[in-house]
Amino acid sequence: MNKVISQFGLEPMQQQISAGEHQFVADVSVKLGGANSGPSPHELLAAALGACTGITLKMYAQRKAWPLSNAIVSVDINRANQIEQFERTIELIGNLDAEQRARLLEIANKCPVHLALAGQIQISTQLLNA
Q1: Number of Cα atoms under 13 Å in the Cβ half of residue 124
Q2: 8-state DSSP, 38
Q3: Residues 6+ apart with CB under 8 A from 79
Q4: What's the whole-model pTM score?
């Protein structure tokens, strides 16, 4: 995996992000002092879970030669009582039987980002230029 680097952008709260050769921005809403020039950090977190879920489902279905033509994944994050609550819905498009759909739901819960978010996380921080 490429190292992800974030630094101040052109807008008041905007962050310029690079991940390998990819460049994009994150920002917050105008209400929070930003310019709404990109997804918020929480939206990027939701996008990571949604994208990982979709990729995992597609890879599994292709390996099994199952007729999954699309998986539409929606993720919403809410915070209550100091707990992040992820609400994920998955719409499977294709001529799948009930057993295949049930198995794909199991597989969705095994995507690497899901496992990372559901497991224990350690964050180590070092300050440079100290």
Answers
A1: 0
A2: S
A3: 85
A4: 0.93
Q: Taking CA 24 as the corner, what is the angle to CA 83 and CA 127, rounded to the nearest 5 degrees?
A: 65
38 close to 14: Cβ distance less than 8 angstroms: yes
Cα torsion 11, 13, 14, 15: sign: positive
Phi, psi (5° rounding) for residue 121? -120, 135
| Orientation of helix 98-108 relative to helix 41-64, angle to 10° | 140
pLDDT tens digits along 64-77:
999 999 999 999 99
Q: How far apart are alpha carbons 93 and 75 in whole angstroms? A: 17
Tokens for 85? 């609550």
Q: How far apart are CA 61 and CA 107, in angstroms?
A: 10
Determine the residue type at 102. A
Residue 130: predicted pLDDT: 67
